[in-house]
Write a structure and sequence with these properties.
The structure holds two protein chains of two kinds.
Chain A lengths: L9 H5 L3 H7 L4 H17 L7 E3 L2 E3 L1 H24 L7 H18 L4 H24 L5 H20 L4 E2 L3 H8 L1 E2 L2 E2 H18 L3 H10 L1 H6 L4 H27 L1 E2 L8 H11 L11 H21 L3 H19 L1 H14 L3
Helix pairs in contact in A: 3-14, 4-9, 4-10, 4-12, 4-13, 4-14, 5-6, 5-7, 5-12, 6-7, 6-12, 8-12, 10-12, 13-14, 14-15
Chain B lengths: L1 H16 L4 H4 L3 E6 L5 H17 L2 E6 L4 H14 L3 E4 L8 H9 L4 E4 L12 E4 L2 H15 L4 E7 L5 H14 L5 E8 L4 H14 L8 E4 L2 H13 L9 E6 L2 H8 L5 E4 L5 H12 L7 E3 L4 E2 L1 H13 L1
Parallel strand pairs in B: 1-2, 1-3, 3-4, 4-5, 5-11, 6-7, 6-8, 8-9, 9-10
Antiparallel strand pairs in B: 10-12
Helix pairs in contact in B: 6-7, 8-9, 10-12
Chain lengths: 350, 317
């Protein structure tokens, strides 16, 4: 129903000339320049920003913090990017984070299962959540924003039910390593996120799957007529998003050694959607960029870290964040670029 | 005659003191409309009020509103219909209580607000029994000033911007340290009352302040943020509780464990034991005495020396 009449969107697809062309076109320019600018601004505000030391055998510094803190958001955002590629949206990611963290924490507290099984159970919870969303969207044809809103609201309740509304804390060397351990000086969570994201990139861009996702997002009906299992692809996208959120949930719970069902992942869906959009994707579906989404996450995270370092009173942080995001988006908007171009052309002759 | 009454009352109170007058007090019926059980703190508040009622031989009619004001209004109306002697109300929101409070007043039933206030005319309820966040902040600052002899550069982890707990805990703290020229808040940011928020903000503070070398203490508006900060400090290679003093507010069970382990230094309890002062207020008004409009029921400051014992007490229940 929602995907029938949008043939006019196809020109946007034409903008990206295959995976290699995507990198060579100027699409990546906006986000990368924005990231560089935010980081340079951080350096100006706080001179110690670029300091990277080795403390207790691992890297330590604000730049490391950005990657470290951004890892979980990047996982969520990459899953979100694929869902948005199918012309969907997944509002439930924050709740899935809470559920997987809750499952993990309660299992560690109440059972003596091996960490491997506990992780599988947490991932399984994410998979089920994704499957639920996918079936609602693909087979029952419910609008994605509504379908995932159900789990966004109910999911937090489920997580609170699992934890009895309390913060469930746990201890264990394995999980503490996931949250804040290091391998060769690099945080484990960054390594985990990098592996998952690289794996997804390979699946999407080295096989035809990414193309299928974009085809379904561009025009679900046409893609079905072309022989693509549009429903299957949609379900798969939501399952991937659910799994990515579950991994993020594991990392977030391991980070604070506890599952905080009320707050874990709260409003993270908004940061994730923002990162996808800053990374140049269209909410109308049909295109998505995993690497640029990660750049989008780093911009948002660098901005947050920079604001904390700057000592700006907390009541202004949201406004500053919003203002910078708006500038980044304006720079990328075709209309704004045209207007700026006209402005410069008019000034040049004089 | 009056004197006789007083004598009788004195006798009665003595009997209560000796635990003999359970039968005499069983007449008192009190309705309690609770918000729900959304947090561990509220669960313990409910348990404490129920236990206090049982101890005093009060027949407590309990109603759980599941976060809905309409349920609370229904509960209060049914308490009025039952002709209870007093009503405890933990209001879920501030507004919309005028009508039902007026009904209670017309029926001559005193209403005691517990742990939160309402935006209604003060004459409509007997009193409010709640913590004073300003005093909590002031107590935290006083402890820190005494501990450091008034010389300390600290960082502050604020609660959610705009919440009354965050505003008042900040103001109360600031008012005290203003008296100490060598105490200064280096940095203050919001950690949204959450563990991960506290951890993230603390990480950035440590980096901004030369790896934490210039920071003498952390003041967190709640325990959860303090627990997050503890991890950030550990991961920066410092010892929380020693290299940096940590003082926080709420008294959740986990903070007692952290204190027992020497990782934080003091916590001020957000008092959940509001039953005793609330029942006292109803009793006093029945005896025709004046009751202040705000009974401040602040919790004590806990220190590591009793923490292990307190943790055992709290995690057991």
């Amino acid at each position: 129903m929602t995907t029938l009449q949008d043939t006019k969107k196809s020109p946007q697809n034409g903008g990206r000339k295959g995976p290699a062309g995507g990198l060579l076109s100027r699409q990546w320019l906006g986000p990368v320049i924005a990231l560089v600018l935010v980081i340079v601004a951080n350096g100006l505000i706080s001179p110690s920003f670029f300091n990277i030391k080795v403390v207790d055998g691992h890297l330590y510094g604000s730049l490391v913090d950005i990657i470290h803190r951004g890892a979980s958001t990047a996982l969520v955002a990459v899953g979100m990017a694929i869902v948005i590629g199918t012309r969907g949206i997944d509002l439930s990611v924050g709740s899935v984070i809470a559920i997987s963290g809750a499952v993990m924490a309660v299992l560690i507290r109440d059972t003596s299962l091996s960490p491997f099984i506990v992780i599988l159970a947490a991932l399984g919870a994410g998979l089920l959540c994704g499957l639920w969303n996918g079936i609602l969207v693909a087979y029952l044809d419910i609008q994605p924003i509504i379908a995932t809103l159900i789990l966004m609201v109910a999911g937090r309740g489920i997580a609170q039910m699992i934890t009895d509304g309390q913060i469930v804390t746990f201890h264990g060397a394995f999980f503490e390593a996931i949250g804040s351990g290091y391998l060769l000086g690099i945080p484990w969570r960054v390594i985990i996120a990098a592996i998952v994201i690289a794996g997804l990139w390979a699946i999407m861009r080295k096989t035809a799957l990414g193309l299928f996702v974009e085809a379904v997002g561009g025009n679900a009906r046409a893609s079905r007529l072309a022989g693509i299992d549009a429903r299957g692809i949609k379900v798969l996208a939501y399952v991937i998003s659910g799994l990515c959120s579950a991994v993020a949930g594991i990392i977030i719970a391991a980070d604070i050694r506890g599952a905080d069902a009320n707050n874990a992942g709260l409003w993270l869906e908004l940061d994730a959607i923002l990162a996808v959009v800053v990374g140049g994707a269209s909410l109308m579906g049909g295109r998505f960029y995993l690497a640029l989404t990660v750049v989008g996450v780093l911009i948002i995270q660098a901005l947050g870290t920079g604001i904390l370092l700057s000592g700006l009173p907390s009541q202004y942080t949201l406004i500053v964040k919003a203002a910078v995001v708006m500038v980044v988006l304006l720079v990328q908007a075709p209309r704004a670029r045209q207007m700026m171009g006209r402005f410069w052309r008019r000034r040049d002759p004089q | 005659m009056k004197r006789l009454k007083k004598l009788a009352f004195a006798g009665a109170t003595m009997c209560i003191g000796m635990g003999l007058s359970v039968a005499a007090q069983a007449e008192m019926i009190i309705g309690f409309s609770q918000i729900g059980s959304e947090s561990g703190w509220r669960t313990s508040e409910t348990a404490s009020i129920k236990a206090e009622a049982e101890k005093r031989g009060i027949d407590l009619k309990f109603s759980d509103a599941q976060q809905k004001q309409e349920n609370q209004i229904k509960a209060v109306r049914s308490f009025i219909a039952q002709g209870v002697d007093g009503i405890l109300l933990a209001p879920v929101v501030e507004t919309g209580w005028d009508q039902v409070l007026k009904e209670a007043k017309d029926a001559g039933i005193p209403v005691v607000l517990v742990d939160r206030g309402v935006a209604a005319d003060k004459s409509l309820y007997l009193t409010k029994v709640a913590s004073d966040f300003v005093q909590e902040g002031a107590l935290a600052a006083s402890w820190l000033a005494a501990k450091t002899n008034g010389v300390c550069d600290l960082v502050e982890l604020q609660g959610t911007v705009g919440s009354s707990a965050a505003n008042d805990r900040k103001a109360g703290f600031q008012a005290i340290i203003d008296n100490f020229p060598n105490m200064k808040i280096l940095r203050s940011q919001s950690g949204d009352f959450t563990r991960s928020g506290g951890k993230e903000v603390m990480e950035s503070f440590l980096k901004a302040e030369n790896g934490g070398k210039g920071i003498c203490a952390v003041y967190a508006h709640n325990d959860d943020m303090a627990l997050g900060a503890v991890q950030a400090i550990k991961e920066a290679g410092l010892e929380p509780g020693k290299d940096l003093l940590i003082v926080s507010i709420d008294g959740v069970p986990d903070i007692f464990k952290a204190m027992a382990d020497g990782e934080t230094n003091a916590s001020i309890e957000l008092n959940p034991h509001l039953g005793a002062p609330a029942f006292d207020a109803i009793k006093a008004s029945m005896d025709g005495k004046d009751v202040p409009k705000w009974i401040k029921a602040n919790g004590p400051l806990y220190l590591p020396d009793t923490a292990a014992e307190e943790y055992k007490k709290r995690s057991g229940s």
